[in-house]
Amino acid sequence: MDFHLDTLLNLPDTTVESCLRQEQQVVMKLRFLLEKGNCPGCQQLSEDLHQNRPVLVRDLPVFGQPVQLQVPRRQFYCRPCQRYFTESLRFVDWERRYTQRYEDYIYQRVQAASIEQVSREENLSWDQVQGIFKHKFAQQKNQTGGQ
Ligand SMILES: [Zn+2]
């Protein structure tokens, strides 16, 4: 909706519906521009939206303020497969509550500092920081191992 915010957000086929400050953080409500989901079973697009339960996803800070994105979590029905599927997001790994770019950032920060320090500075728990680090570490190991 807001051209300038969309430019700042810089995520594919995504627009910012609203942006507000809540408990010392910036909350951006997102909407996807494509009203279709890609079925993981047959790779066909479905327009048959069954439900949408948005989730909060942590993203990189803007102007020094922590950011939470309210991301649509859409479930579609695929007629050929006769089943429901939840679409996968291009900028958030499956079942994660952080954007990929935020997880990359935390992974690098931990390597330069420590889990304790990053946890304090990002206002995340020690377990959350360690969880991100483990997730990224496993991902990179799989990427190099698979080649
Ligand atoms: Zn299908």
UniProtKB/TrEMBL annotation:
Signal peptide: none annotated. This is Transposase family protein. Residues 37-81 form the Transposase IS204/IS1001/IS1096/IS1165 zinc-finger domain. Residues 87-135 form the Transposase IS204/IS1001/IS1096/IS1165 helix-turn-helix domain. It comes from the Bacteria. InterPro entries: Transposase_HTH (IPR032877), Transposase_Znf (IPR029261).
